[in-house]
Amino acid sequence: MDTTEELIEIINEHGEIIGIAPRSKVHGNPSLIHRVVHVLVFNKERELFLQKRSNNKDVAPGKWDTSVGGHVGPGEEPFDAAKREMEEELGITKCNLQFLYTYLHTNPSLAKRG
User: Fold this and answer.
1) In this predicted structure, what is the pLDDT of residue 31?
2) In a domain, 1, yes or no
3) What pLDDT does residue 102 have?
4) What string of DSSP letters covers 6-75?
5) Are strands 48-49 and 36-39 parallel, antiparallel or unpaired?
6) What is the pLDDT of residue 114?
7) pTM of this prediction?
8) How far is CA 78 from the centre of its chain?
């Protein structure tokens, strides 16, 4: 295993942590559920900021996406992950985040992409 690869918690259908695996394993197996965060950023005119994903991404390359998105790290709370991703992706360190909802996330099989 590549020791620099991101580790992701695997959860069951009740949101309980049942394991940890490298990102490549989680993204390559559609039966593995994991936690992600997405943040929608609006300006004062209520316009939504979107990002275009890199063509080098393994999931949805070149597609338009939410303002900010990423994985919840092992032991990390989703709200903290959202704040961390805001800083990493947009450099925003202070904001008034409002929680909207949660959902269970899996990735389609890598074999079906292309």
Assistant:
1) 92
2) no
3) 83
4) PEEEEE-TTS-EEEEEEHHHHHH-TT-EE-EEEE-EE-TT-PEE-EEPPTT-SSSTT-EE-SEEEEPPTT
5) unpaired
6) 46
7) 0.84
8) 10
- Per the rule left: phi > 0, alpha: psi between -120 and 50, beta: everything else, 74 is beta
Asked whether residue 92 is assigned to any structural domain, the reply reads yes
Residue 50: give the domain boundaries.
Answer: 7-109
Instruction: In whole angstroms, give the CA distance from residue 43 to residue 49.
Output: 8
Q: How far apart are CA 109 and CA 57, in angstroms?
A: 14
Q: Which amino acid is at 16?
A: E
pLDDT means per 10 residues in the chain (114 residues)? Answer: 82 94 92 94 95 90 94 94 95 91 77 46
Would residue 114 count as lying in a domain?
no
CATH code assigned at 51 = 3.90.79.10
Looking at the structure of the chain, the number of domains it has is 1
